[in-house]
Amino acid sequence: MSGTRWVKMDLHVHTWASKDFESEGRSPHQIAKAIVEKSIEMGLGGIAITDHMTGDAIDDIRKAAKRTDLAIFPGVEISAPGGKRGPFHVVGLFPTHCGSDFITKLLGNLQMRDDKGTEGAYADLTVGEVVERIHDNGGLPLLPHPDSSSGYVAESRGRARADVLAGQHLKGVERSEWVEEHYPDVAQYHASDSHSVSAVGQQCSLFKVAEPSFEALRQCFEDPDVRIRIDPQEPSSAYPYIESIRVSGGFLDGLELQLHRGLNALLGGKGVGKSLVIEFLRFALHRGLDPAQGALKPVHADHQGKLQNCLGLGGKVEVVLHSPSGARYSVCRTYDGQTNPTHVVDLESSEEVQVDVASLMPTVVFSQREIALTVEDTDAQMRWLDQSLKIARETFLDEELLGPLRQSDEAIARALLAEAQIAEREPSIAARAEELKQIRTRVASPIALEMDAVQKTKAVLGDVRGYHQKIKDQLVRAREEVGALAAPSIGDARGLEADARLNLAVALAHGTARRIVDQLQRLIGYNDLIADEQVVLEEAFGERMSDVRQRYADAMGELDTDMAKLHARRVQLEDQLAREKRAMADQEKAARMLPGLLDARRRLLNAVQEGKSRLSQARHARFAELNASCSGRIEVELRTEANREGYAEALAGLRTRLRRSTIEGLVQKVSVRRFLDLVIRRRADQLAKEAGINDQAAARLIAAIMDDERVHLTEVLSWQYLLHPEDEPVVQYHCSDEGKLKPLAQLSVGQKSSALTVLALAEGDAPVVMDQPEDSLDIRAVWEDIVQAVRGDKERRQFIFTTHNSTVAVAADADTFAILSADADGGHLDRVGAIEVETVRPSVIQHLEGGTKPYKLKRAKYGRDVD
């Protein structure tokens, strides 16, 4: 892992060069070796050699540590007069290239009195002057054991003490409760002040550094809140994070980037691929955008365009993930423009596993401009809040209900259509029956009665044939549906293969399906057999019918023209009436099913409502936790089922000539479920009463749905669950200028973006991936709403930011900087590491400040106001 890490160091160690050191009869060579071994045994990554008024042991200690990873910081403990019970002490630490000669020369310039190596020796300067000399010689001035008899804090008073502690050149103080209370900005740390080998490392602190170096120490003392932990216990790292990303194909082909588990800052000029890293992470982690969210369509389109143009068909993105339990997974997703297949491998077992990547690694991802667009769309806010608060809608909204509900839409639409057709057919059937009755009276004869009988027989035989065909169609459909069901299997569930009972259950399920399919096939065969017998009956009847028809035709030929026409009309009417009665019977059967269908639908809709209610309850609970974690910066309220915009838009799309204000009033008074219940029952009077509209308007609404052939009734019925009113978040943001909370709608774009950014950073331990989080925020909000949150959370949450803002990257103390560049071949990782790394820092200055010259010019113009 590149970037910073916690390293345990003891910055106050004495050696034999201090006269009061407990040598126990050992030689300097033996002591040097023992100090190094003890330091390593105590888990130290660095020690500072700080003998009294001498640097004689530094070179020997450094030599003893040469083949180890232990860093040796040259230093010295300088005494200055002025204490009531003896001289004051000041520690100076210096760059690692400095040695014994450097310390000797330094002391020679401090007007040293008495013998070096003794506490009695001192520099004839004030403590403030010693601090200045250490600083002027490139060192870090520190106050050791400040509360002891030789400590400056305990033994000094007044303006002199205040000038030293508040001075800009003093870098730190060993642990002191008094300093913490009165000078909380001064860096504090623990150190052993060891005067024996056994005491080395007994008191120490953690310093966050890339590697133990003098520049790294300087960074720690400049920013102690995030770089120094007085308690040497390393913070827990049990939270999810992205270990690395590797790209194959496209503009970033060959990119391999190790990510820090804290704050990662991606820097570079325009067009080098910083945003692509964010989009490719989003792609691999299955954090895609829903194109149906209108406000975010531009972000979705941009994301898809980057995949298509900058990753390309066949391009791959592989990320390595750490779960909170410490398990590591490789997720590799290939872009094919359609399914974009993903392969997940458990890196411990090297086996591919079937998991939901979005659930495996929940991640807060914001593409460029996404925050600014999200704050303008209530539905987008709700979806984002659900995601960031780990509220899985699917656990409350049963997706399996959608299938039965859609089937219910179709069945009820058919039943309603049947009711309407019955009403249309009844007058026609009655009229035909009356006409037929009158004709029969006029043309009654034996041959005519015989012809009536064969016509009715033919109709019945036709009904029987159609009935058998319907049975066969149903059986064939059932056979195909059962045969198409996915068979249960143990699959990749390791350790279950040997479970005999489980294997038996799976085998029984397979056998049941086969037997049902076989039985259905036998029933189809039986139905075909009966249908064949029906054909024989029809053939036999056909001969009789031909005879009757011939005799009937002969009889008709003997009649006059008017009587022949009556007979022909009678035959036509009988045929039409038989067909209409058969159709009427089918429609009556379908209509009779309507009450049962509505009752079943009511239960399904109740289940949907219960799921929505549970979702709202979960949101209320999580919003309360979120408000508590935001420390007054943000307050989020949930308005249950307040968003009825989809319902209103659907009604506005009907041909009703109703005003928008009338529609909006209706949707607030009558739920979409109740509205359609009244429409189905054609209760215009009740709809008018509940909606507060007149009877004519209610009738027009019902007619626009039930009688307009251009309206698909199945689509309208789906409103009852697809357009169910949505919960609506009401976000209020604490405006620093006004000192109060204000609703999102009353804020500027920048303030709205600040509000959402606070929410994004306030809750949870999921990684946060943002492309230029400073966009749309004013400078003060960048510090208050981004940087302070990140500084406090980056030990328990991962952040990956692209940025052009030095406050975001430097003031937040990025644990690693990744500098990208580009050429004709594409984008590349130029260098990576912490700010103290000599090859990294110039690039950070160049990209975030424009170079050293503009930065120095700015600092000079600010003058004393930044000192």
Could you characterize the architecture of this molecule?
The chain has 867 residues and is an alpha/beta fold. Helices cover 50% and strands 16% of the residues. The strands form five sheets. A nine-stranded mixed beta sheet has the order 9-8-7-4-3-2-1-10-11, with helices on both faces. It has a six-stranded antiparallel beta sheet with strand order 13-12-15-16-17-18, with helices on one face. It has a six-stranded mixed beta sheet with strand order 19-23-24-14-25-26, sandwiched between helices. The longest helix is centred in the middle third of the chain and has 58 residues, at 500-557.
Question: What key phrases describe this protein's structure?
Answer:
26 strands, 9-stranded mixed beta sheet, alpha/beta, 867 residues, 31 helices
Question: How far is it from the N-terminal to the C-terminal residue, by CA?
Answer: 35 Å
Counting DSSP H or I runs of 4 or more residues, the number of helices is 31
Strand order in space, largest sheet: 9-8-7-4-3-2-1-10-11
Instruction: Report the average pLDDT across residues.
Output: 86
Q: Percent helix among the residues? A: 40-55%
Taking all Cα atoms into account, the compactness measure Rg is 42 Å
Largest beta-sheet details: 9 strands, mixed
Short description:
With 867 residues, the protein is an alpha/beta fold. The strands form 5 sheets. Strands 9-8-7-4-3-2-1-10-11 form a 9-stranded mixed β-sheet, sandwiched between helices.
